[in-house]
Write a structure and sequence with these properties.
By secondary structure, this protein is mainly α. It has two domains: about 110 residues, no CATH class; about 100 residues. The protein is about 65% helix and about 0% strand. The chain contains twelve helices and no strands. The longest helix has about 35 residues. The chain is rod-shaped.
Length: about 270
C-alpha cells in the first residue's frame, strides 16, 4: 500500500493500534459515507481531518531533520491516509492508489462520486426542486415523511448546500397534509413565538400521530342505515280504481231501485 512508502513500519503499527475501524464504503450512498468518514477523521483529532482540505508533500531529508510542524502534518496525513484506504472498496482503491496525499484521494473520490462542478450544480438543482415540492401524502406516516425529507436535506448538505434548522422546521410544517391543518396552524404559531428544533418538531408530530391513531381505534364506527320508501305500484292503483267503480255502481243501482219503488207506491 502507498502508505508504506511514506512512513516506517513501526509508525504504521502505532497508527493501526490507535485507529479504530473506519466506516466501510461499498461504492453506494457516497453522501452518507462521506459524512461518516469526516466525523471519524475528526475523532482522530482535528489535524487529521484537516489533512483532507489541503495539499501535502512529504518533507525532504531525514525524519530527524524535520521541524515539529512538518512531523505533525506528516503524522496527520499518514493517519488519514491509512484510515481512507481501510475504508475504501477495491474498485475505489484502484482509482486512488496513485495519489500521494489524503487531499488527492479525497478530491478524486468527490469527482468520481459527486461529479464535476457542473454535475454537482445539476444535482443541487434537482434536489432543490424536490425540496421545494416536498409534501406529505395523505395517510403517510410521520416516520416515512421525515425519512424522505432527510434524504433530500442530507443530499444537499453533502453537496455544500446546507439548509438551516429554521428553514427545515418551517418546510415540514408547510408540507403536512390537509388532515393535519389544525395541528400545522398550532405548530406554526408556536414556532413564530420561539424557534423549534427539528428533533422537537418530529417528536411533537409523532406524539400527535399516536394520539390520532388511539382515538380512531376507540371511536365506534357509525353504521349506515338505509331506509326504503314504499311507493305505490301500478297494481295497487288499479285495485283502488276498481274498488271505486264497484262502489259507484252499487250506489247507482240502489238509487234506481229506490226511484222505481217510489213510483209504484204513487200508483
Amino acid at each position: 500500500m502507498l502508505i508504506i512508502s511514506l512512513t516506517s513500519s513501526s509508525t504504521i503499527v502505532k497508527i493501526a493500534e490507535n485507529i479504530k475501524t473506519p466506516p466501510k464504503f461499498d461504492g453506494l450512498n457516497y453522501p452518507i459515507w462521506k459524512v461518516k468518514m469526516i466525523v471519524f477523521l475528526q475523532a482522530l483529532r482535528s489535524r487529521v481531518a484537516k489533512a483532507m482540505t489541503k495539499p501535502f508533500c512529504v518533507p525532504r531529508g531525514d525524519e530527524d531533520t524535520w521541524s515539529n510542524m512538518a512531523t505533525k502534518e506528516f503524522d496527520a496525513n499518514a493517519k488519514a491516509h491509512y484510515a481512507l484506504l481501510q475504508a475504501l472498496n477495491d474498485d475505489d482503491i484502484v482509482r486512488v492508489i496513485h495519489c500521494k496525499s489524503v487531499y488527492e484521494i479525497w478530491s478524486h473520490l468527490m469527482v468520481t462520486h459527486e461529479g464535476t462542478l457542473q454535475i454537482k450544480r445539476a444535482k443541487i438543482d434537482l434536489l432543490r426542486s424536490k425540496y421545494e415540492n416536498f409534501t406529505m401524502y395523505e395517510n403517510e406516516s410521520i416516520d416515512d415523511m421525515i425519512t424522505k425529507f432527510t434524504k433530500i436535506t442530507h443530499g444537499l448538505a453533502s453537496l455544500g448546500d446546507v439548509i438551516n434548522n429554521d428553514q427545515k422546521v418551517r418546510k415540514v410544517i408547510r408540507a403536512l397534509s390537509p388532515s393535519w391543518e389544525v395541528k400545522a396552524t398550532t405548530l406554526k404559531e408556536l414556532n413564530d413565538k420561539e424557534e423549534m428544533e427539528l428533533i422537537d418538531l418530529i417528536s411533537n408530530l409523532k406524539t400527535h400521530e399516536m394520539e390520532r391513531m388511539a382515538r380512531e381505534e376507540t371511536t365506534p364506527q357509525k353504521k349506515k342505515i338505509i331506509v326504503f320508501r314504499s311507493t305505490p305500484t301500478i297494481s295497487d292503483d288499479d285495485e283502488e280504481e276498481e274498488d271505486d267503480e264497484d262502489l259507484s255502481l252499487l250506489v247507482r243501482n240502489v238509487r234506481r231501485m229506490y226511484n222505481i219503488a217510489k213510483i209504484n207506491n204513487r200508483r
